[in-house]
Amino acid sequence: MKKLTVMALIACLAFSAVACGSSANDTAETPAAETTDDAAEAPAEESADAEAEDETAAADTSDKTWIIAMDTVFRPFEFTNENGEFVGIDVDIIKAVAEDQGFNIEIQSLGWDAAVAAVQAGQADALLAGASITEERQASGWIFSDSYYDSSQIFTVKSDSDIASFEDLEGKTVAVKNGTEGAKFADSLKDEYGFSVDVYEDSPTMYQAVVLGQADACVEDKPIMGDSIKTGGLELKVVEGMESETAPYGLAIMNEANQELLDMFNAGLADIKADGTYDEIIATYLGE
């Protein structure tokens, strides 16, 4: 009886030892293996996702169509010709630059005020409309490209006018286009020479105000005024000695996220100046 009891006790102890050993192995090994697999796989998946996102972003940038806002009538920089085509120095330059740099553009002819507002609101990516590069504009958030043309502001009067100097403007009315350097130039002189300023929305309306006697003079960019008198047969004349210092024109963005476009424009502009394309464009419209 003692033998049976002892043997039974030994058998129980042996079984317990085996059972405890199995449980320890299951607890230690299985979760550890699962944790190791998860830790190894997660970074690989995240890395693959990140690479996919980078590739998608790159594809999106390369396929992007950049929206360029322009004025409607700003000869010879942008205007509609007799064939109904939107042409001009600005138009030809941005097309040549886009071709040189391999990016897509959509030109929107909006008018000066609407073009500025569209870029400020993010509805267009850049403004290209004979915009003078000034410290005031840069301080208010305009980010400019390199200069693509230098111009001055000039006073223009009716063909039979006897106005020959700033002093002759006393008591007179000067027409300007809203938000332009011409308007700024006139405003800087009005108190000194005693004339008033009327604001118009576009250049043709401003010219007609002088032709019809609603204003005594107007202020405009020199190449624009010269082309308008020549091609439009306007009864206007430029007054020598009544002009500002020259200022450069530039393409403008108003969102730092569009710096890529600015960089491409600068690179393309340098290229078309180097290969003679730029000179051909200027000669086409200004004969320079």
Oligomer: single chain
SSE succession: HEEEHEHEHEEEEHEHEHEEEHH
Q: What is the count of structural domains?
A: 2
Average pLDDT metric: 83
Write down the overall geometry. globular
What percent of residues adopt helix (DSSP H or I)? 40-55%
What structural class do helix, strand and pairing data support?
alpha/beta
Low-confidence stretches: 1-48, 50-59
Q: What percentage of amino acids are in beta strands?
A: 15-25%
The total of helices stands at 9
SS elements, strand count: 14
Highest-level CATH class of the largest domain: Alpha Beta
End-to-end separation: 127 Å
Radius of gyration: 36 Å
Order of strands side by side in the largest beta sheet?
10-9-11-8-12
Query: What can be said about the biggest beta sheet?
Result: 5 strands, mixed
Name the CATH architecture of the largest domain.
Answer: 3-Layer(aba) Sandwich
CATH fold descriptor of the largest domain: D-Maltodextrin-Binding Protein, domain 2
Q: CATH superfamily name of the largest domain?
A: Periplasmic binding protein-like II
